[in-house]
Amino acid sequence: MKKTPFLTLEKARQIAAQIPTPFHIYDEAGIRENVRQLKAAFAWNPGFREYFAVKATPNPYILKLFHEEGCGCDCASYAELLLCEAVGITGHDIMFSSNVTPEKDLLKARELGAYINLDDATYVDFLASMGPVPETVCLRFNPGGSFSLGNTIMDMPRDAKYGMTEDQMAGAIARLQKLGTRHFGIHAFLASNTTTNEYYPELASKLFLLAVRLRNATGAHIAFVNLSGGIGVDYRPEQPKCDIQAIGRGVRERYERILPPNGMGDVAIFAELGRFMMAPYGHLVSTVLHQKHIYREYVGLDACAADLMRPAMYGAYHHITVLGKEDAILDHVYDVTGGQCENNDKFAIERSLPRIDVGDILVIHDTGAHGHSMGYNYNGKLRSAEVLLKTDGSFQLIRRAETPMDYFATLDCTEFTFHN
Ligand SMILES: *Cc1c(COP(=O)(O)O)cnc(C)c1O
Q1: Is 53 close to ligand 1, i.e. is its CB under 6 Å away?
Q2: Which CATH number applies to 28-277?
Q3: What is the pLDDT of residue 305?
Q4: pTM, full prediction
């Protein structure tokens, strides 16, 4: 399907007059509508809850928006917990799904009353060493082997560092029961950025069957099944879009087949989606600074991998639209680059695009999740601003661009003076 930006050239110019490019911009209306679609897809499950994966877009304005729509947040670090606390998201509105967990982080999660999702069985004693164990604890599962849908291998859980074996889960539950835990959740994240409607239902089926076996083995009450993240988005125009209603129906079908017949019709479904909630509702907006013609045609932007690392890190495709040339023919082939001294700092390689001129404003699509948040400062490149495009058409700066002084802020500056 053709990818259409949620921003026109006129709007982009209006914003850029106040907030210089590059910036990530997020579409409030799109975000809110998508949450409503997700909730509708799982409305058949009264306990359904989405815990937005904070790492995808760790900005309090975004977290507040999800909170207003009735979502919780999924955190994995101390700083992410502090973000939630600042927005007023506490207690069971937080899922703490961390791994290699420092004591300070776990203490903070406990202090906030978060659901704690243990990545390893040894963390039971770690948790118990901090005082009474929570009434409800979640355990992360790793089934080992490979994870397939039909004939397609989706991922290799046996090579993944996350979660514990089924035996370890049963042992952890038995030990937690002795310590006073009364309700359990089970969690697994087995494939990332899936674009088939079958991933969640297949994962759900595995976890529902596991829930029945664990209940049978330990007598434990399984309160929720956390399907975590992994629903993907159509980064490429030719890719299919996930149909969240079909996904909801697929999970429901497995649920009804497996859980109520085993006397487990009260299990709530939780999700920790990040990419699906935000990626399509973010654009990286950037201005063309430079063009050069050597062995290829290069277009150089004021944004670079510091603002969006996915192409450099994963070779990920992000669609590009030249604003004002949405319908122009794609009769040029460009490498679209940033200015880092790294040849992988390319947003697109040999991409067919319309003729581009210096000063053109480009939209790099689907940067709302794992975009700004993955940024870094290599080469002294500073990370961009974040802007919220509100439902009423107004816009708000929700994170200013970094300055050189931010880059120097962690140095011991008693010996050196920086002049901005
Ligand atoms: C990254 C992550 C998510 C979100 O994944 P998406 O692919 O963005 O949906 C959810 N849960 C955990 C534990 C994660 O690490």
Answers
A1: yes
A2: 3.20.20.10
A3: 98
A4: 0.97
